[in-house]
Amino acid sequence: MKKIIHLLTILLIVIFTLQGCQKDADDVIVTPTTNLEVQNFIWKGLNQYYLWQTDVPNLADNRFANQTALDAFLVNYKVPKDLFDALRVSPTIDRFSWMVDDYTVLEQQLQGTTKNSGVEFGLSYFSGSTNEIFGFVRYIIPGSDAATKDIKRGDVFTAVNGTPLTVSNYQSLLFGTNDTFTLNMADIINGTITPNSKTVALTKTVLAENPILVNKVITVGAKKIGYMMYNGFYSPYDTQLNDAFGYLKAQGITDFVLDLRYNGGGSVQTATYLASMITGQFTGKVFAKQQWNTKINTYFEANNPNSLRNFFTDKIGSTPINSVNMTKVYILTTKSTASASELIINGLKPHINVVQIGDVTVGKNVGSVTLYDSPDFGPNNKNTKHKYAMQPIVLKIVNSDGFGDYFNGLTPTHELKETISTFGVLGDVNEPLLKAAIGKITGTAKTVQQSAGKQFDFFKDSKSIDGIQNQMYLEKAPKGLQHAFN
What we know:
seven-stranded antiparallel sheet; alpha+beta
């Protein structure tokens, strides 16, 4: 009996010893039932495309000896977004990469379609506060629910459904799951935000926003000034954009003002078309150059360098572009002007005189592309078991002179900050930013006078909050890239 007990004791010691070995930190067991499809997609997509791939040790090409070693790393990240965030460089360097669990929503957002009440707004801090914020209406999207309600540009709100807005609750209040909500309005009295009794009930609907909000010709003496307020580089509206320039061209405009104050960006291709419409005399010349991560850039510089260039063009497909042949353009900006909007300013500067009026821009000089879980990371043959997609930063973009270092934003030629109390009507000749541009065009304004309205510290705007996140993106990766490293 003692012999049996002795043998059992030895057996138990062996079992516990083996279990202790299995629990070493560097020896994670991946069982056959462990599902790491999404995690593998994230790592492999970022390893191939991420702009800062060489700066992230866990994305190094030689970091994992084989798939088993990679899986042992990935199994530590049960939540896909946790892995995505862990594989990014410092948030101060990469401010704009993101991912979603439903690529359908992502695709719609990049094309200008969102679930939206139609109120495009900004958020600012109450004077002296770092927590309490209020909203102000920048414009109302035509065809939206808000367009049928008593709410307009310049209106102010301080609460949603009676709950005051703060930096910790604004997302849940304004972008939560409820499709109906009520804004509690306020007045600006002697520079002070004062709540009033007015409320506005709103309903979110699936809304496709035409980015051309205003397109008109303003005649001042001998000057015929084209003015366009353009709020997003959405490729489905490229034809409408070209038609809008056709109208300006037919009117024989002598000068052009492009209002990008609320434009958070969009398609690089659309930006190239717009630059070609503004000019017309540079077809075939370089508008912008793309700089990818080291291995991708090296491949294309050796095999197809034109894939890394964006050229001025005279066609959209087979349709001739309506160009107005400007040699000078006036561009209106605010702290919400980002990405493809900044690309327009920076890309045009080597070719024509760009007069920027307004505030310093966001400073997004990098672009992204949508990556899907498919053999080539493109939209075809996607994994049907999930709908995750990534929108990582994959390139830095510079102008034809090689300049693209505006991480802190593009500084205006003439500084003029918007103030809520003096907003004015968009497109009206007395609206402060447009008035300043007209004054510069006609020579009647030697200096730009800052409005006397009260300044409030800017916090965020609706387009940078709701998922679009100041995008500058490629419609697809350059031809041949998907197969270069397979």
